[in-house]
Amino acid sequence: MKRIILTGAAGILGKAMRKALVGWADELVLSDIVPIEEINDGESFVACDLGDFASVLELVRGCDGIIHLGGQSVECSFDNIMNGNLKGTYHIYEAARQLGVKRIFFASSNHVVGFHSREDRLDANSPMRPDSLYGVSKGFGELMAQYYFDKFGIESALVRIGSCFAKPIDRRMLSTWLSESDLADLIKKVYAVNRLGCTVIYGVSNNPNSWWDNRHANFVGWQPKDSSEQFEEDVFKNDPLLANDNPALLYQGGFFATAGHFEDK
Amino acid sequence: MKRIILTGAAGILGKAMRKALVGWADELVLSDIVPIEEINDGESFVACDLGDFASVLELVRGCDGIIHLGGQSVECSFDNIMNGNLKGTYHIYEAARQLGVKRIFFASSNHVVGFHSREDRLDANSPMRPDSLYGVSKGFGELMAQYYFDKFGIESALVRIGSCFAKPIDRRMLSTWLSESDLADLIKKVYAVNRLGCTVIYGVSNNPNSWWDNRHANFVGWQPKDSSEQFEEDVFKNDPLLANDNPALLYQGGFFATAGHFEDK
Amino acid sequence: MKRIILTGAAGILGKAMRKALVGWADELVLSDIVPIEEINDGESFVACDLGDFASVLELVRGCDGIIHLGGQSVECSFDNIMNGNLKGTYHIYEAARQLGVKRIFFASSNHVVGFHSREDRLDANSPMRPDSLYGVSKGFGELMAQYYFDKFGIESALVRIGSCFAKPIDRRMLSTWLSESDLADLIKKVYAVNRLGCTVIYGVSNNPNSWWDNRHANFVGWQPKDSSEQFEEDVFKNDPLLANDNPALLYQGGFFATAGHFEDK
Amino acid sequence: MKRIILTGAAGILGKAMRKALVGWADELVLSDIVPIEEINDGESFVACDLGDFASVLELVRGCDGIIHLGGQSVECSFDNIMNGNLKGTYHIYEAARQLGVKRIFFASSNHVVGFHSREDRLDANSPMRPDSLYGVSKGFGELMAQYYFDKFGIESALVRIGSCFAKPIDRRMLSTWLSESDLADLIKKVYAVNRLGCTVIYGVSNNPNSWWDNRHANFVGWQPKDSSEQFEEDVFKNDPLLANDNPALLYQGGFFATAGHFEDK
Amino acid sequence: MKRIILTGAAGILGKAMRKALVGWADELVLSDIVPIEEINDGESFVACDLGDFASVLELVRGCDGIIHLGGQSVECSFDNIMNGNLKGTYHIYEAARQLGVKRIFFASSNHVVGFHSREDRLDANSPMRPDSLYGVSKGFGELMAQYYFDKFGIESALVRIGSCFAKPIDRRMLSTWLSESDLADLIKKVYAVNRLGCTVIYGVSNNPNSWWDNRHANFVGWQPKDSSEQFEEDVFKNDPLLANDNPALLYQGGFFATAGHFEDK
Amino acid sequence: MKRIILTGAAGILGKAMRKALVGWADELVLSDIVPIEEINDGESFVACDLGDFASVLELVRGCDGIIHLGGQSVECSFDNIMNGNLKGTYHIYEAARQLGVKRIFFASSNHVVGFHSREDRLDANSPMRPDSLYGVSKGFGELMAQYYFDKFGIESALVRIGSCFAKPIDRRMLSTWLSESDLADLIKKVYAVNRLGCTVIYGVSNNPNSWWDNRHANFVGWQPKDSSEQFEEDVFKNDPLLANDNPALLYQGGFFATAGHFEDK
């Protein structure tokens, strides 16, 4: 791995990956719309508004791969979604095409499928059912990636990240938790496999009660090692059971699915 | 878990679960049509003929959940089937509805799918093909449970129990064995999950040559820990191979499928 | 066709089939729990309570086939369901087995799948989701038929009848209508095919907006000729649109699915 | 039908639908970004840039349904796509939500699935594989519609229009042709059905060599009456065969799939 | 269509196609291992043993397409199968590759799937289950065709012919009958479509009780016009019903499936 | 296990199995077209050209099972393929039928499915897409086995062997490697299970990035214990990455799929 870009490097996920990927690439090019002060050996920083194509083109020039965590990562106004996630994702792929970058790790989200029932087992072929404008924008990103693969041969991992935190903190996360270490392993596998294609991968650790089946991505060789099981007791203590007809229990997206429209608030 | 009813408590399965669930519920209300003499701390006993609605209503009153192992558990005459398994299961669900009980563990049976070939891998979507009047009655119970879920929101685990004994004693059981400990774990999981729905679960331990795939019930988080593998050598010694066209080898239900009609005997 | 039994001959469907099948069988043995006064040439009458095995055995003796329309045909109390549809169907199949009758036309019902969404296209492999105790009992009948086929080789047509009337009278029936003439044709086809197996057939005419796909039963060769289309205008006038979130529009079973429990009423 | 909006009314499709729908609605509110001079009885005109939310809100106020043909209808620059198809579609759905409009006819496109092979038979469950930025934007629109249905109950017909012209003019259109009359019928059916849900419908006439299967939308009751067959001879004369490995023959999207990136040109 | 080869031209099918295709090709090159005496305008004759590669190469030189009906067309000894159907089919494809022929109509057979149950509805994705050495050899031919398509781009129609005769003469043929006229239409369609791929097509007329679904080949545009229905009455008279457990009724291949091994006889 | 034949005993696989199966059978009858000099206790040797039926019949007489590794095991001329793999496999099955042998381990190959994409997850139902004449011949063998099972009840394991060597030596083998020890375990399981049927099994160890799913063969109880993971680092060093559009990366068959026709070379 030579020169790899990490967008959204100032965010929670970005910070965790900086730590977890130390020593992996010759140069990890951090990028964000907000400045990052402390730059370590093997890292560099390029400020970039993903909504501005010239900046993105500048950022992507000379890189060998892109880990695209940037843009909005929760529900917000359509204007913000549009700038960071619609224009932003288009800019990343179009810059890759113009500059010959061949492989992108795209941080999609479980909120692309958030309106599926929790009793449904999903795999890469399950239809998208977004639970938010944010989820719609991630679905858009997946379609854009598929288009750039089918027409221009740019490969992507479409990683529908569950809940990537130090540990699961509520009952839903017992199903959706992705450890930072497992995510870092996945990034490495995505860049180690000789042929990636355009492949949906659910970003989830080896939790006993997961809703997602990664069998179609087995060829990538990723085998998550962590499990939410060890945190079960703690979570059970701190997060009380809901009534079994509470709408927040019906859908995989949890409160994203039961929240109203962002712009009403 | 507060007050949980255990029907069929005097049967083999019921006895095993009494032991395995010690300390789990505040009160385990044992029930059977035959008397149970020795009642332990944390247990109580209510005699009940499942075919009599008034008794069932009395039994269910004030409970928080039902583990329904009662009724006929092998092939028998249609009259017995009707009383214990048709009327009995209806009475349990109707009592639950009238009294507001929200979750039922229903001991269904592999004999609901006993006429499938042993070379077929089944999952929760496989069509029912009962191998006996007993199997038909368990299928009826599953339909009744589905109806009470769709219309009244009563959740059920429809557990198609394989062969629940201390250990597997013939070649077929190497595929179908369910350890008592794994069954007890499953009961606990069924009452621990925040949303259960109406979910088919094959009651089988982690045997290497199982016919059944529980992937659709993965969200429940049950991971059986025992395996028939350790008993393989013993079984091979004691249970000779049959000719490969012996009808008893063709169907998952084994001799249930090849036996004639009960009432002829 | 020599001697064919028609159960439920005094009911609406039974009356219509008596007319439509004139001349088809050497003898059409009418049967019902209520008396039928006018018996035509080529018909005979045997009174029979389906809940009484001795009577059923008497009825079935000497016949070459059974058209089983009898039992309860709408939601009612569990006791009535049990007598007519649980015991009754068992008695029909068990009598057929004892007396060597090889083929049964079983009038099942769309209410076996009434809790499926109207936007779902069903076929013979769709799981049962009954919308009523009546629907549960018809599902039981289908399982019983499957059991007698798998074990004893008795063939059945499991005909999930939609709405069999002279013409469709509400918007739902534009999807579910089965003309009497198409039903009679189906009966003839079921007895003309050389091998029937145990086959689910949706009993619906060639309506433009049907929910059901009979492709798996194509080998029977039934091609319904009538269509609800000609009645569309009349129905639209007489049956006003409901609000699009009205629960009665959600499910295929219509008001069966949204009605409460029978015995509460 | 009372007051229905027709966006994109100045376009080719819009003009055809104005003619075909005469007399269907009390008022057909024509809308486009370019002016329309001749307004007939039963029509009115409201100029509207779909990229401007205030205008869209003004347009939608007081209407009973929306036929959304507006926005870009061929490949063009991302900026144009973004304004007309990303912002535009969001604005239509968000205005509908705020103002209580309950049903939208959304003109999606076959270019949402244009990278599927011509030898593949598609139905409503086939994954999206867009062949252009335009196709990506229509996929975005379908996701947005699904989101507004799942969260807010707004129903949509997602009509993947093939080639809607007076007649097919090349060999590909023998598969994809949609007559104007069949499209108008579809619009009427979409507003006549009591429950629509959020339903994918391939907009194609009854052509003998179509690639698309509308079985999942059968409940809508649309039965296209025209066929490309009568034009076959003419087309064969005027459009020569290509070599069988010509890339334009491989994909359903035809030259959309084999064209390079718009902004290069 | 310029110069097209017809192998097996002296056989029953070959003779029928000579008549039905008059005027279709500039030159129809008849070929068979037995001599054909009467050669019409627009025809020529080349004797050829398909088991001899040099002869096949000579035959194929200069042609624009091949209709391959030759080889064994019923069960026979493995030696005959090997010469005509294993070597023969390899020789046809290898000659086509060496000489640049791009499209082959391969007469496969329903006996490739003859061990499927008559109650199963088959389509192009159904697994092969040959009912005879002959059926195995036709399956081999389909695999060979698939190989030459995947590696060398030679397109094939793999036509699983049912029963191609002037009219159906037994009950099984009511399901499997293919009229000569429909077969000729299919040949024309196979050579008219611009892209064929390697496509399984069941060769069956529009019979009401067919077992086969050609939906995946719909893009070819073939719509058979004849039906066995008009012959039903005659067939019913002349071909008596069998007992419903007669093995010949169980399988689609009919007596091919129930016959023993050829070389025993 | 009494007297078991091992064809192809002089080949690489044959040698490895001789070692791995020491002590398993009463007598392991080694067979090959080339002589084997060193014969150990518990072994015997019979020279046999699989293309000669009389020899095969002699070989098979008196045996209890056949492990059929013989014939061509890589791409070669059609004449060689025909003798060893077409005639040879027919001879093995026909001899088994004549002499009453009931179970055959057939060494099929991953090259039967070599033209599937590496991004596709295959299972026993995936259609065959051979990548070579060799692959076509193994597909022929699978069809022959299926035929002898359906008609004569001879059971087979159709083992699609990946890459069976001491260790994986290139990147592709990290997916396809089968350890010799796992293969020997599989042979034992195939002969230990009471009912085998005719079952496709992918012969692959427990590699993290395998393309193949053996769930449908789970009833056999085989659980491979080795994994390519330990060899990953070595392989990565010695086998450089290819460009991601290199054709050899597209297909599961690797260079078999991208090689031209054997007889051209």
CATH level-two architecture of chain A? 3-Layer(aba) Sandwich
Task: Compute the number of structural domains of chain A.
Answer: 1
Q: Pair with the most extensive interface?
A: A-D, 31 and 31 residues
End-to-end separation of chain A in angstroms reads 44 Å
Sequence stretches where pLDDT stays below 50 over 5 or more residues of chain A: none
CATH fold call of chain A: Rossmann fold
Number of extended strands of chain A: 9
User: CATH H level of chain A: which superfamily?
Assistant: NAD(P)-binding Rossmann-like Domain
**Coarse shape of chain A:** globular
The percentage helix of chain A is: 25-40%
The largest pleated sheet of chain A is described as:
7 strands, parallel
Strands ordered across the widest β-sheet of chain A: 3-2-1-4-5-6-9
* Oligomerization: homohexamer
Describe the protein in words.
- The structure is a homohexamer.
- Chain A is α/β, with parallel strands linked by helices.
- The first copy, chain A, has one domain: 3-Layer(aba) Sandwich (Rossmann fold), CATH 3.40.50.
- The first copy, chain A, contains 8 helices and 9 strands.
- Chain A has helices at about 10-20, 55-60, 80-100, 135-150, 170-175, 180-190, 230-240, 255-260; strands at about 5, 25-30, 45, 65-70, 105-110, 155-160, 165, 175-180, 200-205.
- Chain A has a 7-stranded parallel β-sheet with strand order 3-2-1-4-5-6-9, with helices on both faces. A two-stranded parallel ribbon of chain A has the order 7-8.
- Chain A is globular, with a radius of gyration of 18 Å.
- The termini of chain A are far apart.
- The mean pLDDT of chain A is about 95.
- The interface of A and D includes residues 86, 132, 135, 143 and 261 of A.
